[in-house]
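[step 3/7] fold_predict: job queued, chain A
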Amino acid sequence: MKQGWKTELISGCIAQILMLFLLLSISLINNSQAQESSTVTDIEGNVYKTRVIGNYQWMSGNLRTTLYNDGEKIPNLTANKDWVESHTGAFCWYNNDAVNAITYGALYNWYAVDHDRLCPEGWHVPSDEDWKRLEGYADSKYGPEDPVWDNLRGRGNDAGRKLMADSGWNSGGNGSDDLGFSALPGGERLKDGGFFAGGRSGFWWSSSSSNDSIAWYRNMIYGMEDVYRDKHPKRMGFSVRCMKDR
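[step 4/7] structure written:
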């Protein structure tokens, strides 16, 4: 009787030790994965915070690399004429001022996006469908599969406010940044080469082309709670976010 009691006690202790070891191992694995997924570094050494939204991992900052991920240099076109006439990949800083790089990242034409080498290795520029899912995860009223996201221009309820950073926008225009996406108003470079809406609006390319001359993009505007979806000429300059390959 006593021997059976001792055997049960020892077995129980061993089971508890094994359980604690298992929980500790899982915790260490999860912590390791969280650390590995908390940032991504581009080919130039620029480091970006990341955030998992739904089942997808997104950058929490605008891309600012001046190199494709194979090391090829992306032309920095400052002159309006050069920007307008280019049909190959190019980038610029807002107002051609590199001081805007850290906060707002670079503005790229869509031809740079089309290279499929713009994001860090293992990452890509999100498609129009990727953006729809992101909006659905963010919105408090319409889910990722809701047909509302197929509409043009302003759609949804409050996805824009939840995706926008809680600082960095014009007075009264900050978002709540509920998901850590931290969208910032990098402005745009227009089809005539001029600059517009820095500090007031953010524009982001998708990887989805509509035809030879236009592609899908997203826009968030200070003071507005929804997200704008439309198509624009590929020679315009927009910000870029990257998402991790699956």
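[step 5/7] annotate
Confidence is low (pLDDT under 50) at residues 17-37.
The CA atoms of residues 88 and 190 lie 16 Å apart.
exit 0
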